[in-house]
Amino acid sequence: MSIPSSLLTSAGLIGGFAVARASQHRHWGGVVAAGAGLGAMEICRRRAGVAPALALGATYGTALAGSHPLAKKIGAWPSVLAVTAATATAAHLLSRR
């Protein structure tokens, strides 16, 4: 049994932000986010193929980039949670067999 890709994307986005904030080193948060994102893509590739995995990677990257301007409008944590919910939904749908 493998970890759901939606769980990994959620852990990467929330965990990456939490690590960056707690450590005050954005690059450490980026390492957490990147590792979880790549892991989620690999799980998706094994289950559904290369195209859905690439789509998941694009969604994840867009969520990371999009959370920054969104945070200026609604706050940091609400932004992270919003993009996490959207990305987890996409991961769930893209990783179906």
Account of the protein in words:
Helix 2 (26-48) runs antiparallel to helix 3 and helix 3 (50-74) packs antiparallel against helix 4. The protein contains four helices and no strands. It has helices spanning 5-23, 26-48, 50-74, 76-94. It is mainly α and 97 residues long.
Main structural class: mainly alpha
What is the terminal-to-terminal distance?
Answer: 14 Å
Biggest sheet overview:
none
- Which regions contain 5 or more consecutive residues with pLDDT less than 50? none
Quick description:
This protein is mainly α. The protein has helices at residues 5-23, 26-48, 50-74, 76-94.
Task: Write a concise keyword list for the protein shown above.
single chain, 97 residues, mainly alpha, 89% helix, 0% strand, globular
Secondary structure layout plus pairing:
Layout: H1 5-23, H2 26-48, H3 50-74, H4 76-94
